[in-house]
């Protein structure tokens, strides 16, 4: 195992999004002496309400800005004496990448290259540095009914989103191989948990069930995703940042495969219990709709390297995680109403022909 690297000043990009904000809340609770600078453009997906727990912390600084702004990034790295970058910022929704791929290339590819180049120049003056690229299992493409993605699986992205993430991952590799920048690359399966934007499957279903709206299931509903609680993902990223050997890739996943239709039915049933509705009532809202273009059939992650080399294990059972997630959404309807009332409303109306 690599000697433990202890960051003293961490630049987090995209820290107002779903996973980035969960990561900051997790990391700052366990690393009170580390400074954390959150650089986020606050697109439709970013929300500072996700970060109220750290707002008053003297070691926390929020900067509204674009990862494609090379001058801003260079200035922050120098000014804050940053010795580690955890790069979450991205356009993250596959459906949006199908209707508008350009912004995915700009943010995910060009934004990553901008951060890498600024980090390369900045790190030349430092004894030690880490750049951690938060990536996705989608870069590996799609699986048939058997098998798992390992770190050796060839990249075969199918959507503009996953292609842009694969492009970014290859730039990360290039900066390690060519310049010796100490990079790390994590590739995680589908996350769920608090602050998940309600355009993604699980929070969209919770929101629509509550409003008694139809529950759009793409295609035959038999596509498979491998779900991991966002807090387990956050812990994995911290472990890789501190103990991963530079130049390495680590898959992250919880061995928790679900067919989409089964997860939608489960969410319906758990919601019915909580809302005092008759058993089976919400399942009536399930509507099979036109399939997503290029819809990957199955994702399943082999995370044995992370377990073996860095002793990481997920702590959530899915039973507990999904129940807590539903309870969180029910207790935080103000947050949901706020995020669906902004720029998202237009997108929702275009997708579903109803008001968010
Ligand atoms: P998200 O869409 O919820 O958040 C993205 C954040 O990035 C937002 O706060 C947004 O404002 C910010 N952002 C976008 N463009 C920016 C720019 N140009 N400059 C600065 N900030 C910008 O995404 P998420 O689901 O939290 O995903 C975070 C990362 O994790 C992404 O890189 C994604 O590819 C990866 N990932 C996500 C999942 C998942 O299940 N959601 C799984 C594996 C990997
Ligand atoms: O695997 C990791 C990836 O997981 C991340 O890299 C992405 O950023 C993240 O968005 C997620 O991508 P998916 O496309 O798997 O997630 P999404 O929630 O959009 O969809 C999950 C599955 O549910 C997928 O098979 C499509 C289906 N689906 C989705 C929506 C929004 C539906 O059937 N109906 C829907 O309304």
From TrEMBL:
Keywords: Lyase, NAD. It holds the Pfam family GDP_Man_Dehyd. The gene is rfbB. It is an enzyme of class 4 (lyase). Belongs to the NAD(P)-dependent epimerase/dehydratase family. dTDP-glucose dehydratase subfamily. Residues 11-325 form the NAD(P)-binding domain. It comes from Geomonas anaerohicana. NCBIfam families: dTDP_gluc_dehyt. The keyword NAD applies. Its EC number is 4.2.1.46. This is dTDP-glucose 4,6-dehydratase. CDD domains: dTDP_GD_SDR_e. Its cofactor is NAD(+). SUPFAM superfamilies: NAD(P)-binding Rossmann-fold domains (SSF51735).
